[in-house]
Structures are given as C-alpha cells and as structure tokens.
Design goal:
Keywords: Membrane, Transmembrane, Transmembrane helix. With 442 residues, the chain is mainly alpha-helical. The chain is built from 22 helices and no strands. The protein has one domain: Amino acid/polyamine transporter I, CATH 1.20.1740.10.
Length: 442
C-alpha cells in the first residue's frame, strides 16, 4: 500500500513567478560581481572596455536565455537541460547531459560555494582556519536540510536572500552614482594595458559571472503555469541581473580610479565599501556577500537534485526506485537531495571542488550549444505547433547564443586542454552506465 502511495505522489506545483524569478537572480548573483571587477578591467584595458565587456556578456547570456525560453515553453518539465537534450537529440544525449551535472558539475558547484562561504565566515568571525572544512560541511548540509521540506521553504528562502543581497548592491550603486567623483568612462593606465588579456577574455570572465540562470528550468514540474512563467522568469531574471551588473560596475568606476582598482584586485569593492560607509562598511558588505553565496547555494541545492530525480523517474540511473522516491508529505525528492549533498561533502573533504567545477565548464557549454540549436530543430520538426513563447529576432538571437558558447568552448580548449580531456572522461564514464541500465531495464 505504501509503495503504491509513493508512486502516486507528484512534485508540488506551488512556485509562482516571484519564486522562480528569485531563483534565477539568486542563482546567478553569487560572488562574481564582487570579485571580478579588477579581472575584467585588466583584460579589457579600460573602464569603457570593461563596461562594454559586462554588457556583451549580458547580451550573450540574454540571447541564450531567450533561446532556451522557447524550448522551456514547449517542454515545461522537471529536469531542464536533461529533458531538452533527450527530447531533441535522443535518450543517450539527455542522459549524458544529466549525468555530468549530477555526478560532478552540480555537487562541485555546491561544494565550491560551501568552501568559499567557509573562508568568508572564518575571516568575518576570526575563527581558526582548522575549521574551514567543518564549517563548509555545516553550511552545505544546513541549506540542504531546508530543501528536504516543501519546495515553498526553499523558494521563500530564495526570495529572502535575494532581497537581502540586493540591499548592499543597491548601496554600492547609489553611493557610486551619486557620490563618486571619478569619470567612469575612458580611464586607461599603462599597468592595465600590460596585463590585459584582451576584450574577448574580459567577456569570458563576465560570462562565468552570469552563469546559473538555466537551473530554474529544472523546476519546470513545480512552477505554476510553467509554459508561460518559466520563460518569463528566465528572461526577466537575466535582464534584471544585467542591469544590476552594469550599474554596480559603473558605480565602482565612479568611486575608484582604474589604477586603484587594478592595484586592489579582488579587494576593490571591499575597499570601496570602507571608503563610502566608513569602518563598518566592509563588515556590511561581507554580510551581503555571505548572504549572496548562501542564496546562490540554496538555488543550486534546490535545482540540481531535480535532474537526478527526473533521470531516476525515467529509470535511467542505478537505484532508480530509491532515488525517484518523493516524500508523501513534502513532495520533494529527498533521497536525490541527500545523494547530491553526500557527493558535495565528499568533494569538500577530499578534492578541490572549485577546480572540478571549472573542469566541467567545457562540457556544460558543449551541451548548451546543442540546446541552442534546439528551437530550429523543433520548428522544422513541428512547424504548426503552438508556442506560448517565441524567440524574438529569430534566427539572430540563437545565432548570438551559439556564437557566445562556441567562444567559451574554444577559449577553454586553448587555455586548459588538459582540463578539457578530463571533462571528456567524466562524460565518457557515463556511457557504460547508460547501456548497463538500458540492458537492466529491458
């Protein structure tokens, strides 16, 4: 009887537009905007070039979001990219995209956020560094436990953390725009030019700060009216983050000279906070960054297990009956969440999680490119189907998205070909797992 009841349990479709929008914004805005100002400026060579790089990265991300939004409107199901790849290219491609995300990329992203959060907490409270790993584990598990309950709790937490993280961001923008005394445009110094990696490298740095928007698609089965709300959340969320990133960058350039930003490196924004708000400013900003990371981590812990659940539901993973279990009261995939947390915890203890997440960037963008061809394939396959959302300026929009992803792929090959090979190995390992499970099911 209990088995039958568990099989009838479905995910709770309770998330509205604000919850989905908060997850998009909260998952994108982690720590990138706070620490990458100097790196983007150094690569671009001038403040004007850096602003254009942030704008270009945002436009590429927006075209990607618009492209995926059309697919999401037609396939508003739990699993996101895994579902899109399977429906468009076949089961093995869906499996491999999901496999890479649930085994390496997702847990590594969660673990790296936990590790970075631990360092910030240790610095903020002057805790001995011997506590780095335990605090990272406690942080990841605590946020994970929240997501074992109804998805409303995780969504509410996403809304709260998104609002909280926007308060220090708004303060930086306001003080920079209205009290900064520098000319934000045209600043260029020799030291910046000597260390510049070029405008293209600057765009690459911004693209990583914009990443994470697609994860809300994993919750397609839990969003109300997903064929309309999911595209709205993706597009509005990316647009909002683009505006925020541009205003923060402009505010920083209004407050500090290019030479000072280059000299301070990742400490540029903390220095600006101390300068604008006094001694307490740095502490307030640190709290904002801590909340920002916690919110970003919550979004990833809420969304990545949904991929595992979707794959288990489709009987594509070992122990699929166990992993596809939904708690009858909370209607959440508790064992998928626990498994994701377990893998992330192992990475925190034994591996360099940040490096593991970097290794997977190449394969993630390979699947992105394939997905960006999806709307064209679907339009040819089903020319008369009704779409709740259509890509504006088609086919220019997906072409820009594809070009941006190819740029990331080529850059990764040129800068870290060994990492590219390792990322291929992560994917290839999934092939025998897929065929074993296929044979087992048959």
């Amino acid at each position: 009887m209990k088995k039958q009841e568990s099989e009838d349990v479905e995910l709770n479709r309770s998330l509205g537009l604000w919850s989905a929008l908060s997850l998009v914004v909260g998952t994108i805005i982690g720590v990138g905007i706070f620490v990458r100002q100097s790196a983007v400026l150094d690569d671009a060579g001038s403040t004007t070039g850096a602003l254009l790089a942030w704008l270009a990265g945002g436009i590429i991300t927006l075209t990607a979001g618009l492209t995926i939004a059309e697919i999401a409107s037609q396939m508003p199901h739990t699993g996101g990219l895994y579902v899109y790849m399977e429906k468009i290219y076949g089961r093995i491609w869906g499996f491999l995209s999901g496999w890479m995300q649930i085994i390496i990329y997702g847990p590594a992203m969660i673990a790296s956020l936990g590790a970075y959060l631990s360092l910030l907490l240790i610095d903020f409270f002057n805790i001995p560094h011997i506590w780095t790993v335990p605090i990272a584990l406690i942080a990841v598990i605590s946020v994970g436990v929240l997501n074992l309950f109804s998805n409303r709790y995780g969504a509410t937490f996403a809304i709260i953390t998104t609002i909280c993280k926007l308060v220090p961001v708004a303060a930086l923008i306001i003080f920079g725009l209205f009290f900064g005394n520098q000319n934000a445009l045209g600043h260029s110094i020799q030291t910046v030019h000597q260390s510049a990696g070029g405008f293209g490298v600057a765009i690459l740095a911004t693209l990583f700060a914009f990443d994470g928007w697609i994860l809300v698609a994993n919750l397609g089965g839990e969003i109300k009216n997903p064929s309309k709300r999911l595209p709205q959340a993706i597009v509005l969320g990316i647009l909002g983050v683009l505006v925020i990133y541009m205003l923060v960058t402009y505010g920083v350039f209004r407050s500090l000279t290019a030479e000072k930003i280059h000299q301070l490196g990742t400490g540029a924004i903390p220095y600006m906070a101390n300068k604008d708000f006094g001694a307490i400013g740095g502490k307030i900003l640190s709290i904002g960054i801590i909340i920002s990371i916690v919110g970003c981590m919550n979004g990833k812990i809420m969304t990545f297990p949904r991929i595992m659940y979707a794959m288990a539901r489709d009987r594509e993973l070992p122990f699929h009956k166990f992993l596809a279990y939904l708690n009858p009261k909370t209607r959440t995939p508790i064992w998928c969440t626990v498994t994701t947390l377990a893998i992330a915890s192992i990475m925190i203890i034994f591996f360099d999680a940040d490096r593991l997440s970097e290794l997977c960037i190449f394969t993630v963008y390979c699947f992105y490119v394939m997905a960006f061809f999806g709307p064209t394939i679907l339009r040819h396959r089903h020319p008369n189907v009704h779409r709740d959302f259509s890509i504006p300026l088609y086919p220019i929009t997906p072409i820009i998205a594809i070009g941006g992803s190819l740029f990331v792929i080529v850059s990764e090959i040129m800068s870290d070909w060994r990492g590219v090979l390792i990322s291929f190995i992560f994917v290839i390992v999934g092939i025998p797992v897929y065929y074993y499970q296929l044979k087992h099911n048959s």
